[in-house]
């Protein structure tokens, strides 16, 4: 089932998230719905707050990039109760967008490498290092669980320059090809 995506301005995007356990109601269905929602909106990542839930969970699927980046074939991750424990490496600037901020794309600087501890959909524990684009996507989605969106990384001047677009999203004057709330 395709879920509506929460847009910028909705308080759930700034609400503290909570960890879940194996008994979280309908978790397999939720995960399936989040992947379906993300694919329908042509995203590569989707965090639970983006579908209105204040829980520590996100999904990533980079397989849509496999034609140009063969290493991303079958690259799919379910990340439950994550904690980024280290960030290091080069500061890399790259344009980012977000399904919750339609039509806004800005350069964001992030560390090139991370270490993250999490559980997958089978409750297998992971402590892994990521670099490059996967590390960027992980950090972007993790930000959602920490009550942040990518524009929080922008300079005050850049934020001022996109203020009109942000106001359009908040006031519902933005059109998306996917379901929103």
Please tell me about this protein's structure.
The chain has helices at residues 27-40, 132-145, 156-161, 163-170, and strands at 45-47, 57-61, 76-96, 106-119, 125-131. It has a 5-stranded antiparallel β-sheet with strand order 1-2-3-4-5, with helices on both faces. It has 181 residues and is α+β, with helices and mostly antiparallel strands. The chain is built from 4 helices and 5 strands, in the order αβββββααα. Helix content is 23%, strand content 28%. The mean pLDDT is 97.
List segments where confidence is low: pLDDT < 50 over at least 5 consecutive residues: none
Mean pLDDT: 97
Gross morphology is globular
Report strand %.
25-35%
Give the helix/strand class: alpha+beta
Describe what is shown at a glance.
By secondary structure, the protein is an alpha+beta fold. The protein has four helices and five strands.
């Amino acid at each position: 089932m395709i879920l509506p995506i929460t847009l910028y301005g909705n308080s759930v995007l700034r609400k503290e998230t909570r960890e879940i356990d194996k008994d979280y109601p309908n978790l397999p269905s939720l995960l399936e719905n989040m992947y379906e929602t993300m694919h329908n909106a042509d995203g590569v990542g989707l965090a639970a707050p983006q579908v209105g839930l204040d829980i520590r969970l996100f999904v990533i699927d980079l397989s849509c990039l496999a034609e140009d980046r063969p290493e991303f074939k079958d690259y799919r991750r379910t990340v439950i109760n994550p904690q980024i424990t280290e960030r290091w490496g080069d500061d890399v600037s790259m344009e980012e967008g977000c399904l919750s901020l339609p039509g806004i794309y800005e350069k964001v600087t992030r560390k090139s490498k991370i270490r993250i501890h999490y559980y997958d959909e089978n409750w297998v524990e992971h402590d892994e290092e990521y670099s490059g684009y996967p590390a960027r996507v992980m950090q972007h989605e993790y930000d959602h669980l920490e009550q942040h969106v990518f524009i929080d990384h922008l300079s005050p001047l850049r934020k001022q320059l996109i203020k009109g677009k942000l106001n359009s999203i908040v006031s519902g004057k933005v059109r998306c090809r996917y379901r929103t709330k």
